[in-house]
DNA sequence: CTATACAACGCAACCGGTTGCGTAAACCGG
DNA sequence: CCGGTTTACGCAACCGGTTGCGTTGTATAG
């Protein structure tokens, strides 16, 4: 289909002919292998440069089995998940890092827990490494990928499985700091309205919350944790109960911005003022967080850094070099109107 | 790197041996070409099925020059653009359609107007077709891609250039309908606070707005159009002038949700009630549109359908068949609180 | 001064499909 | 029953790199 302009169709043998050597020598030169004289090497490099020769990745792929390709796997149809705006940012950073390293990115979709198609594509396309930005820690795909020896990196989940790398945000500290913020602004009755227990990020946030509460001792009057889905309406319903019940909290730390939005809705409909009567925080810094009333204090993930780190981790794994296989990156608290200005 | 399990490593020659024919015959069978006897064909298909043989796309790629790959090109670093949440949805639909057709998707990033790298990758990777979801109509990349004969589909921009397909939302009608909505709810003093003039979608929205205004005749008391960047703060500044000036509009149709958010901010700070004093509409149905105060009436693009259509268009172009090369898909108005409930 | 070790390359066989061409067998009408 | 087509298939040369092995020439050691 694609018409390659004739004169651009240089092959390695053409270069070899121009340099008066064999194709093998050109190949060795390009790959920096030994067995080529200094003088010959320079001459070949000169000619390559001059003619802007580029190796055909397909041919190389066929003979080496490597492809200079990274795959990123997304769940299909899981719209609630894929739509999460962290992905564009992640993809951008990944793509950037990949391009810089001469890799291309293949976008795979995983239909309904069926690992087969993804594994298949990885093998047949000779994908060098795989990023799983949305796989649960128990996803069978992980085992299958490591089974075939594919370097794999998880994003947003932690695992102890051998041969799998991961990079995650420091949910623990972030939740701790938010809780700390509540206490520092005089909130002593706290609720953590967390996301589902099966989401590992939520477990970590829970840990951070409780660690801060424990450490605060008498500074906190009451503290409890409630789980809801990542859903504004469900959060509203739950928050209505919490905010109208006995021992009304003065600070609600939420497991996501969507949940926080629900809490603020509930507060408004009960006539409570945010943050005066009840302070609220979210997680993720979704675009609407800057547009709620009041604007939402939340946590921003270092998406750029996560993407870059995942790519670099994969490169290290591909080349077999030593590298950190587990990375936790710190987050940033975005202070807005749903928490009181720090007092004193 | 990837260890293929040995027994899975069937080649076309293995199949040929099993069927007692030559590799060429197997190849012809798989590609449905003539020159194979009915009986032989069935036997070969049987064996292929039985051993779950799959062709090696890399090898095929090398010899045919086709790759069963579609590329999607995103601008790099243009964060404001890439972050736009339409992309995840688009990618999802594209990936879905591609997978169904046995294609994979390559994600390319276009660094700063440099078409070279993208074109290079398209040629070297034998990409069969390219989707440009974020290229301006004058992007040099378009010419370069058609120059090498690569089937190309634009999303969100229309062009008359030969050999380029496009699919876009019906911005014209959407703007028309929003304007109509204003009139139907008794708003006679209108402003279109549109996005930058160089964005083709904005031109179309402008056309739709004016068409409705013209058709309405005396039903509209005043109407004008102002351009601002897609930026909430800039929109707020402009809206402050518009709303506090003489002949205050009672309806503001905005070129994007971000602009609409700015207008609502301005209205609030002037003590104007939305929608009672001034009705506001947006465009895009960004996630925050459901969370502003009041919630924002806006337009939802048929992202799924756009993605699907783009993929199908590419397939048609690849196979050289006839197909619509220009598709306009209709949008959906999401009625929320920033416009009055339809009266009467 | 000869035997041995390297370094620098060429050769050719891969990698796993595709395809033009040649040939033998089956088929056709007369 | 024969010459001429058609059909079914094998052969081998691609596609464009990579790589193990063999050969040559030169430096080093003995």
Helix proportion range of chain A? 40-55%
Largest sheet of chain A: 6 strands, parallel
Strand composition percent of chain A: 15-25%
Oligomeric organization of the protein chains: homodimer
Within the largest sheet of chain A, what's the order of strands? 2-1-3-4-5-11
Largest interface: A-B, 64 and 64 residues
Mean pLDDT across the residues of chain A is: 90
N-to-C SSE string of chain A, H for helix and E for strand: HHHHEHHEHEHEEHEHEHEHEEHEE
Structural classification of chain A: alpha/beta
H/I helix tally of chain A: 13
Query: Regions of chain A with pLDDT < 50 over 5+ consecutive residues?
Result: 1-7
Q: Describe the global form of chain A.
A: elongated
Radius of gyration of chain A: 26 Å
The first-to-last residue Cα distance of chain A is: 70 Å
Strand segment count of chain A: 12
How would you portray this structure in words?
Chain A has 344 residues and is α/β, with parallel strands linked by helices. Chain A has helices spanning 12-19, 23-30, 38-50, 57-64, 79-82, 86-100, 115-124, 140-147, 171-184, 200-216, 232-244, 257-269, 303-318; strands spanning 69-75, 104-110, 129-132, 152-155, 164-169, 189-194, 222-227, 251-254, 279-281, 298-300, 326-329, 332-334. Chain A is 43% helix and 17% strand. The first copy, chain A, has a six-stranded parallel sheet, sandwiched between helices. In chain A, strands 7-6-8-9 form a four-stranded parallel sheet, with helices on both faces. Chain A has a two-stranded antiparallel sheet with strand order 10-12. In chain A, helix 1 (12-19) packs across helix 3, helix 7 packs parallel to helix 8 (140-147) and helix 11 packs across helix 12. Chain A is elongated and about 90 Å long. Residues 1-7 of chain A have low confidence and may be disordered. At the A-B interface, helix 4, helix 6, strand 2 and helix 7 of A face helix 4, helix 6, strand 2 and helix 7 of B. Strand 2 (104-110) of chain A pairs antiparallel with strand 2 (104-110) of chain B.
């Amino acid at each position: 289909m694609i018409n390659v302009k004739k004169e651009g169709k240089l092959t390695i043998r053409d270069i070899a002919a121009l340099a008066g050597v064999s194709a093998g020598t050109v190949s060795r030169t390009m790959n920096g292998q030994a067995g080529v004289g200094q003088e010959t090497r320079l001459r070949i490099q000169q000619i390559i440069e001059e003619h802007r020769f580029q190796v055909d990745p397909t041919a190389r792929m066929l003979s080496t089995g490597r492809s200079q390709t990274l795959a990123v796997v997304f769940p299909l149809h899981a719209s609630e998940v894929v739509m999460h705006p962290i992905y564009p940012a992640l993809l951008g950073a990944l793509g950037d890092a990949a391009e810089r390293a001469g890799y291309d990115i293949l976008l795979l979709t995983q239909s309904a827990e069926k690992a087969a198609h993804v594994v298949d594509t990885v093998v047949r396309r000779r994908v060098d490494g795989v990023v799983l930005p949305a796989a649960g820690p128990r996803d069978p795909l992980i085992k299958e990928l490591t089974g075939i020896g594919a370097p794999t990196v998880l994003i947003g989940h932690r695992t102890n499985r051998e041969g799998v790398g991961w990079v995650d945000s420091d949910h623990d500290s972030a939740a701790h700091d938010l809780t700390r913020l509540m206490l520092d602004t005089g909130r002593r009755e706290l609720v953590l309205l967390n996301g589902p227990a099966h989401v590992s990020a939520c477990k970590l946030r829970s840990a951070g919350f409780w660690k801060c509460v424990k450490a605060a001792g008498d500074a906190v009057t009451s503290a409890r944790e409630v789980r809801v889905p990542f859903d504004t309406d469900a959060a509203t319903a739950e928050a209505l109960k919490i905010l109208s019940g006995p021992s009304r909290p003065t600070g609600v730390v939420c497991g996501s911005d969507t949940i926080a939005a629900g809490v603020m809705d509930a507060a408004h409909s009960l006539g409570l003022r945010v943050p005066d009567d009840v302070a609220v925080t979210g997680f993720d810094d979704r675009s609407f967080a800057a547009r709620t009333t009041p604007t939402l204090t939340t946590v921003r993930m270092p998406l750029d850094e996560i993407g870059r780190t995942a790519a670099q981790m994969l490169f290290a794994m591909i080349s077999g070099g030593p590298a950190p296989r587990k990375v936790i990156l710190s987050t940033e608290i975005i202070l807005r109107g749903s928490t009181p200005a720090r007092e004193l």
